[in-house]
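Box 3.1 A note on notation
Throughout this textbook, protein chains are presented in two layers. The first layer is the amino acid sequence; the second is a token string describing backbone geometry. Keep the layers aligned when reading.
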Amino acid sequence: MFCRCIDSEWPLRTFQHGVYRESDEGPSDRWIVNFDHDLADGLVLATAMAAYCPFLIASHLCKVLSRPENPEESFHNCLVIVGAMHSIAVGLDCLASEMMKPCPVQMLMLCVELYSKLPAYVPHCMLNFSGALHSTVSQQLCLSNPSSRTLRYEATIVGRDSGVFYLHRSANFTHARQVSSIAVGMHCVL
């Protein structure tokens, strides 16, 4: 049982360490060896989220302090991380105070949740909008369902420019082996 636990933690630690070290700027290097004190200041989680959700950098993660020097600054980082997790609907609800005094089991569960959910947020394509100033432009985003079950897609717009874009409907059902579309619009303003 103990060996199995260590084997299951190793990919998570490797994931965290690899994503954290790949960031170009920010805090000094550190080796992540546990799921409590190494994650308490929020920097590692912020870096992992920035690697997979670059759209969160301008709206949330730019507020993270890269070298927190006291508990108040670390708490600030944890508040920013919790806000970013809420904006992308991470399934595990975690408070900033719980991240500051972390329970290793709860932080492990949070890391597992991020490990399974964050790769789905990597942008795969882009919609390009062009239009005259003060006009409204709309494009169709196609959703395909290759499985044999009906899927429910839920779309939200997050990020710095989220107020400029809109969805005609946020929830969409795609029946088995069919394609549906959702309209995405943009108000062209300065």
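The domain at 2-121 is CATH 1.10.418.10 (Actin-binding Protein, T-fimbrin; domain 1). The radius of gyration is 19 Å.
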